[in-house]
């Protein structure tokens, strides 16, 4: 009996493995023995996976090893970051030390760095100096100052036209150097025009007090005063003006009071970048009084000048010819 049961189980197993004829399953499909063997057979994979499982201690040991490996990787990674950070810090520190050594080096003593600011043709720009002084530059203007500006005094080298609004500092006087002329102030507002080409300096004092010096001229100016210095003849003319008019200079308005036409034409050359030519020499000595707006077109201002003087303007190629009007 036992051998028959064993043989039958072997036959069942062989059938489940697909080794026997399919008709075997049809004959015994309702057999309880076959159902039992089928259940056991279906559990064989789970039993196999269970046998492959590690004990709790082995599993924990494996987890610890993976954690240590990950921690080691992070430590190495952080160490690399620290190395890079240390290298960068060393470079920055070395750069700072070298900079200090350079500026404190005896080879660098006495050397000054000069800052130069230039406005272009027809350009107006505002500049703030290191002490807070505000300078409105006109066309074709140059202003320079050195790295020693503000240590014992404040000095700028100037050429062109500009409105100065000097920050007051009684311990550090402010100087504007124009060729061999010099303006000294403590804190004030003034308009200065100085182009070497026309050999003329003009200073209009809007606020405060200034001292104008050139050669044997030493003139103390008060608010509302204008001086014109002819650098060729050496004559300095002083007169009182309406300050409110000159305040509008930053808005483009230029007031002229009995100024030579030659000087006015020169200013327009700076503003508009086009050369003028006089038809005769005596026209240069014509005088003009009035206001010219640099923000207006050239044609607009030429019309105004023509209405107040017996002259006319004719544009010829890239220049404007000034002629007498019949």
From TrEMBL:
It holds the Pfam family FecR. Residues 117-211 form the FecR protein domain. GO terms for molecular function: sigma factor antagonist activity. Residues 255-322 form the Protein FecR C-terminal domain. It comes from the Bacteria. The keyword Transmembrane helix applies. The chain crosses the membrane at residues 81-103. Keywords: Membrane, Transmembrane, Transmembrane helix. PANTHER family: PERIPLASMIC SIGNAL SENSOR AND SIGMA FACTOR ACTIVATOR FECR-RELATED, PROTEIN FECR. This is FecR family protein. It comes from Mariniphaga anaerophila. The lineage of its organism: Bacteria, Pseudomonadati, Bacteroidota, Bacteroidia, Marinilabiliales.
């Amino acid at each position: 009996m036992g051998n028959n049961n064993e043989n039958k189980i072997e036959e069942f197993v062989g059938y489940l493995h697909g080794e026997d004829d399919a008709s075997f399953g049809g004959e015994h499909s309702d057999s309880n023995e076959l159902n039992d063997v089928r259940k056991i057979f279906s559990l064989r994979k789970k039993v196999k996976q269970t046998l492959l499982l590690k004990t709790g201690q082995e599993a924990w040991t494996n987890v610890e090893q993976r954690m240590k490996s990950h921690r080691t990787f992070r430590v190495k990674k952080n160490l690399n970051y620290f190395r890079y950070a240390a290298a960068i810090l060393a470079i920055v520190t070395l750069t700072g030390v070298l900079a200090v050594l350079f500026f404190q080096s005896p080879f660098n003593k006495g050397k000054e760095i000069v800052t130069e600011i230039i406005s272009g043709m027809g350009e107006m720009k505002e500049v703030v100096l290191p002490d807070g002084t505000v300078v409105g530059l006109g066309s074709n203007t140059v202003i320079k100052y050195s790295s020693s500006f503000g240590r014992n005094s404040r000095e700028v080298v100037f050429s062109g036209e500009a409105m100065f609004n000097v920050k007051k500092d009684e311990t550090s006087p402010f100087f504007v150097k124009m060729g061999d002329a010099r303006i000294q102030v403590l804190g004030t507002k003034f308009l200065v025009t100085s182009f070497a080409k026309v050999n003329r300096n003009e200073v209009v004092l809007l606020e405060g007090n200034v001292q104008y010096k050139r050669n044997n001229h030493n003139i103390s100016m008060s608010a509302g005063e204008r001086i014109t210095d002819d650098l060729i003849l050496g004559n300095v003319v002083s007169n009182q003006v309406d300050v409110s008019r000159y305040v509008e200079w930053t808005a483009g308005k230029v007031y002229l009071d009995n100024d030579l036409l030659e000087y006015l034409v020169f200013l327009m050359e700076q503003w508009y970048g086009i050369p003028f030519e006089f038809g005769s020499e005596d026209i240069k000595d014509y005088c003009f009084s009035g206001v010219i707006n640099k923000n207006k077109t050239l044609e607009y201002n030429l019309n105004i000048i023509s209405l107040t003087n017996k002259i006319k303007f004719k544009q010829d190629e890239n220049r404007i010819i000034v002629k007498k009007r019949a």
